[in-house]
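Supplementary material to the annual report.
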Amino acid sequence: MGTHIGSPGVVVTTRRRWSLARQEAIFGYLFLLPWIIGLVVFIVLPMLATVFLSLTTYSIVKPPVFTGLDNFIRAFTQDVLFWPSMGRTFQWAILFVPLAIGGAMMTAVLLNQGLTFTNIYRTIFFLPHLTPIVASMYIWTWLLQPQFGFVNELLWQVFQVQGPGWFASKDWAMPSLILVALWGAIGGNMMLIFLAGLQGVPKELYEVAAIDGANLWQRFWNITLPMISPVLFFNLVLGIIGALQAFTNAFVATDGGPAYATWFFALHIYQHAFSFSEMGYASALALVFFIILVAFTYVNFKMSVHWVYYAGEVK
Amino acid sequence: MAGAADAALGERYRSVHTFGARRRQYAGRTLLHLIAVGLSFILMVPFAWAVISSLKPWQEIRLLPPTFWPSTFMWSNYSEVWTTRLFPNWAQNTFLITILATLGTVITAALAGYAFGRFRFPGRGILFGLTLSTMMLPQAVTLVPSYLLFFYLGWLNTYYPLIVPFWFGGGAFFIFLFRQFFMTIPTELDDAAKIDGASYLQILTHIVLPLSLPVFATVGIIAFIAHYDSFLFPLIILNDPPKFTLSIGLRWFSFPPQAEVIPRDHLLLAMAVMMTIPIVLIFFFGQRYLVRGLIMSGIKG
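Predicted assembly:
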């Protein structure tokens, strides 16, 4: 600090520089104060409370009773929905995230070709993502309604195929959720983030590659993909975290059914906390979930050094 | 690069772009347009269907075999939604909550981003790392304690839990966007202003703010959509139907508490369409800032 302020004519003494630095620090903390309070009150303390509550039995009306690891033992050994809900959540994430990322990357590449009307295409692609999730789930439950839904009618009229039961079918409920989520995701935030990344790829790289006779696929594989690997990683990390938290879509469209086919872990936590008022048990479930998520993210970061390329990085 | 080398490169480049190559490129463009139009069409079908169906007389929605066009366009479905007992309430509640929460998000996230991006103070690196790590924190982990906190504050079934927390930093992602953007503004401007005796707040409002409209628009739009769309939190906080937001109101409306004589599918569809319109308008007018803000924030990981 201070060296660039010491322009000719301004006498900078040590004492003044120290006080300027201190002043800067004080104002820095001041501007940060709301966030520091928010961090402590709404994130750090609740997390500590979750750890504490996970060791108790607590139904709000009576004070918490310390029960040690009972909640965790119950989750792992007695709760018949614990493992299935975990399985459903991962099944969903493993199918949805790669499809969403692949789709969003393709639409972003398409929009980055400098086509005329790109603005219009971008708006249209983004619209599904903008639709409030409850509204879109409601519209889709109608579209996919087995008897008088538009999709099954179309399948019948065009292909003479009897469409599946979609949300009403045990086997099709999960694919239906994925289909609807993809509708919202391939032109959504992931696409915008890819687009931002693509615009940062130097044009010269493509020009040089074109001179060297690289075809479209080679240019994508050898230039685009490495150059946008940081945004790919960003989308992957946040995509997995978001997918594992899925709640609203299943809650609105299927209520976790049929036969618990879409009973996501977040629904399981919600039910124990707010339908059964088992705050202690719900906290234990949330904690287990959190640890799994942290582990996943850690592995993700560890693996990223092998495939993410940072252009400005000094190795 | 030297001028001679540039010229040589240009020569080679031009020779590659022969007549055949140009025609191939033209064909490629047409193909890309076809893909884009096809995809647009597929993505728009659910909207088109919803809008058209929302104008059907209620008897035609559950018709077998289904029809695509309404026999008569019932524009009255939309006015009927406004005369249902609760929809105007929900719309009003939603806008009140969304606007106040978005304001808080933008203002306090900008302050935090300003501090992280342009101030030097001890512990900045650690605090910023901590901030970023909260992006990975699932909502479920803090849900129960937050609910209990609002329970003990007597805030359940009020709007405070849906507004007040967002006046405390607004979330890591937004702080990150602001910081990245503010870092691109040269600090020489600050220094010049400091010498002229400007305070830090004046530097923010007079120098940084006018140069940062894209990022303010970006955060404003994304935050508005997120608050407008919020579901889980209003669901656990609000339990009195007149106090509902549109999100949970729509779901509540689709499960009538007692059996109704006339199905209200036509009203539900009209509600779903109407609920989407404000968001589409906001995006439509703000989208050029949105993309620019994201790009200039340099999201590269």
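Chain B touches chain A through 105 residues (CB under 8 Å).
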